[in-house]
Amino acid sequence: MNLVAVHRVSLECVSRFSLIHRESGEGFSGRRIVNSRGRNRPIRRLHAVTAGLITSADSFEVGRLIGSYGFMNVTSYTGLQSGSDFEYTSDDIGRLKSQDIGEGGVKIRLYEGRISQGPFRGTPIVFKVYPGQRAGGVEADMMAANELNAHSFLQSKSLPANLLILVGGFETQLGEQWLAFRDGGKDSAADYAQIASEKTSRARSQGVWNPYEKEQMVKRRRNFVIKILQGAMKGLAFMHDNDRLHQSLGPSSIVLNTPAEREAIYLIPRLRDLAFSVDIRPSCLEEGATSGSLSEQLWRRATAAGAFTVFEKRAFGIADDIYEAGLLFAYLAFVPFCEVGRLLENTFRLDIEAVREYCLADERLEEAVKFLDLGDRAGWELLQAMLNADYRKRPMAEGVLSHRFLNGVV
User: Fold this and answer.
1) Coil, helix or strand for 76?
2) How many structural domains is the chain composed of?
3) How many Å apart are CA 126 and CA 241, to the nearest integer?
4) Residue 107: phi, psi to the nearest 5?
5) Would you give the DSSP letter of residue 165?
6) Structural domain for 308, as ranges
7) Are residues 212 and 90 in the same domain?
8) Residue ranges for the chain with pLDDT beneath 50
9) What are the DSSP calls for 72-90, one per residue?
10) Tell me, what CATH number does 372's domain have?
11) pTM of structure
């Protein structure tokens, strides 16, 4: 068998996953947004805001800075290279590939806030602030407008439980785009996974772990991860049913109303970050209608995969979301159960069975392997289907939800 390079790196957010840098700060200040930008500055409304949204800055108050976003963009797929950062094994791990990742230039800030006027006065919200063209270029405006339009369109259908709800938005004199979302939680699935991984590392380093307590912890963790996956896939299924792709699905694009595993019964995961969402209604996939810069890479990949007709492009787009969901699944199946930094990452078109055999040789990956082994290896089976190299063979979101691994295995 040919030697295959296996790049061992710590798990980071990929495929346009938003990376959150948390900020410390004071508590809720109660400042009105208009005053946070200076006295009596005129406010210009975001373009094409739907009638049901709040569009006056006077209707909001801004609180403390929560953190900031940076977007990572997939530019191409390339084979792994050899070097000092790689390890080799004579086993055929599979046709591993990696992403070439480029950091986008758009930096986004998050603030706490609340509605200060009207029937929803006092409702907690989170502001997502896109920089103006001077700081973020035309791309920032395009992303803000796309996210607003995607939420407006989806919320005109219903108010899905597993999507973050947009309540309003406006544009400041400085050109910043402020989008206001109902507060669905401050923690993401990435935050939860990192905290769980650190707890595992501490318990192992201390060398004292009561077997009964460990068993109960593992059960709670498995259940919590399954609930995150179920919620994410329900949100994705809703989007696909309404002809919208997510295209930025990852652990940081899932908001949790609680990160506590003991509170799993109350957990509601919600999708966010629809800045790269793509409209896949047939009229939007006609020749010439898929040339928008935000979706350019998607349609290039579609063409390379042999998807040329409207229906082939639509199928490819949905399958591309499922592939990202598969990477999310892999992230959540490993990171919460393992020590920090012990996972194969940036791998594509995996031979899942070979990866399982590889992981079995590392005791620090034991709990992740046991998790995916549940139900006669049901987890590996689902992972293989979602990451299938042939987009035509990947399941739909509803198919993922109905898979036995997400229904009764845990």
Assistant:
1) strand
2) 2
3) 27
4) -110, 130
5) P
6) 187-406
7) no
8) 1-49, 74-103, 343-349
9) EEEEEEEE---STTEEEES
10) 1.10.510.10
11) 0.82
